[in-house]
Amino acid sequence: MSRGILTKSERQAVRGEEEDDNKRSTYLARVRKRLKENVREDARILREHRPDLYEELHAAVCEEEQDERIERLEEQIETLQEQVNALAGDDV
After folding, report:
1. Quick check: 13 and 27 in contact, CB under 8 A?
2. pLDDT tens-digit profile of 4-15?
3. Which domain holds residue 8?
């Protein structure tokens, strides 16, 4: 597996698979630093110079899968229907 934002050891630390508290803390600190410094700067550079790649990054990180989005919207619709029905029942 090629490296993305996290190394293999950092992935294990994030998942809670690293037993050594000091190592886990070090790995998580590295991830935070990389996100603050490198990833923000990389995203800015992509946005300014290669908007097509920036859009790919945005889609990979920010956008929900279509099925997840549909499921979430269906749950919201069901909740709203229940609220409307409750209000309609109160008026009767």
Report:
1. yes
2. 889 999 999 999
3. 1-49
- DSSP one-letter code for 66: H
In a domain, 4, yes or no: yes
The domain tally of the chain equals 1
**75 membership: H or E segment, kind and range:** helix 66-91
Q: Of 15, 53, 48, 44, nearest to 31 (Cα)?
A: 15
In a domain, 35, yes or no: yes
- Kindly report the length of the chain: 92
**pLDDT, tens digit (0-9, with 9 covering 90-100), for 2-52:** 668 899 999 999 999 989 999 999 999 999 999 888 998 999 999 999 999
Residue 40 lies in a domain: yes
59 lies in some domain? no
